[in-house]
Amino acid sequence: MEFASIRIITDDLDGMVAFYERVTGSFARRPAPVFAEVVTGGAVLALGTPATVAALGAGAPTAGGNGSVIVEFLVDDVDATFEGLREGLDDVLLPPTTMPWGNRSTLFRDPDGNLVNLFSRPA
């Protein structure tokens, strides 16, 4: 078995693609108008409209309904990365901070309200 991706369902695919392209510095693959993949060094963040899960009926995930997942990206320099993104971030929960376990982290929300953590490990 191989881990393939985590998918976020969104009503604003273009906005979310633009946001994650900016955060990751990667361009999304758009194999269909209702789906995109942002590929980073070790993982894929898939973004899809509700149409991509419509076959699940009443059990389908809903856009903007996340409250338990944090999308995390390992970066070389949290402070520099945050400074480059700061102007476009609407909801910063934690500016760059050294956590008790030594990681340097910043947390903010994407346009759908999902938590995003950029972190670096201690040297």
Task: Report on the architecture of this protein.
The chain has 123 residues and is an alpha/beta fold. Helix content is 16%, strand content 34%. The protein has two helices and eight strands; from the N terminus they run βαββββαβββ. A hairpin with a 5-residue loop joins β7 and β8. The protein is globular.
State the oligomer: single chain
Helical proportion, percent range:
10-25%
Distance between the termini: 32 Å
Please mark out the parts with pLDDT under 50 across 5 or more consecutive residues, or reply none.
Answer: none
Strand order of the largest sheet: 1-4-3-2
C-alpha Rg (nearest Å): 15 Å
What structural category characterises the helix and strand content? alpha/beta
Can you count the helices? Answer: 2
List the helices and strands and how they pair.
Blueprint (H helix, E strand, L loop, with lengths): L5 E4 L3 H12 L4 E4 L2 E5 L4 E5 L21 E5 L3 H8 L6 E7 L5 E6 L5 E6 L3
Put the structure in a nutshell:
This protein has 123 residues and is of the alpha/beta class.
